[in-house]
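Standup notes, protein team

Yesterday: finished cleaning the Poeciliopsis prolifica set.
Today: ribonuclease H structure.
Blockers: none.

Input for ribonuclease H:
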Amino acid sequence: PEARKLTAFRTPFGMYHFKVMPFGLQGAPATFQRLMDHVLRDVSSFSAAYLDDVVVFSQTWKDHMSHLKQVLACIRAGGMTINPQKCAIAQREVAYLGYIIGFGKIRPQVGKVDAVHKFPVPTTKKKLRSFLGLVGWYRKFIPQFAERSAVLNNLTKGKAPNKIQWTEECSKAFEDLKKAICTDSVLHTPDFEKSFTLQTDASGVGLGAVLLQEFDGDMKPVVFLSRKLLDRETRYSTVEKECLAMKWSIESLRYYLLGQHFFLETDHRALQWLHRMKDANARIAGWYLALQPYNFTVQYKAGKTTIAADCLSRIPEN
């Protein structure tokens, strides 16, 4: 109630303020998200919320009924209500934030995939950015995403004209991204009772990584990562680039990796002895210190066994 006066606005009929949080206030999304995080803090092990979209997940029917009761009790205690017509109860899989989640797997939502498939060839930077934003939401499903989108991303740079010059190379990249999304891309949901394996690699132009876990005797992807090297980073030595790939990927995946032991696989032997290096340069020493909160074992793997990470690192090289 004490914040209501901050929403006051003037009209010809006098001053008014909102009694409940409206759409459109600059700080409303962050404020409401903080509220939901607080309301569900005691049930966060089996529920999650993105603004007003709440999902409850369980392994068994009995657990689900118990979890659902606890979540509803928390929402009631927070002074909020639920619209039953907008609820989906006891689903084997659900559409959530543009994804289909269920059976231990995550895949793109069909409607969103159709939107990508039907997207017309963009003619301006604004339209191209819209397309890249749409496919970028699903980048973790697309191996080598940074490489595949590099040609199109270059067209959106500040000095490029607003009306883009569409080439055959652009058409190939455009169709390739649409095809990559429209195929049955599947990532496995992480099991935090199992250990993770992180494969990293660096090339002359980019960094790549893939987070893996073992399911049914095979290593399955949980997340794909890739990014270009900055201009200054392209001048790093090989060992510096490989160490940067390790630091960047671990920090990018900190919510998966922090607090548990994991294995890091690299095709660069020198990283095996990183913790024993006596004469490491200041840059590498700083990166290594930044990774002290993490518990991991570095394992050397030949490049042919870390193909995914290697490909993800070679952004515009092909």
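Follow-up from PR in the comments: The CA atoms of residues 56 and 68 lie 7 Å apart.
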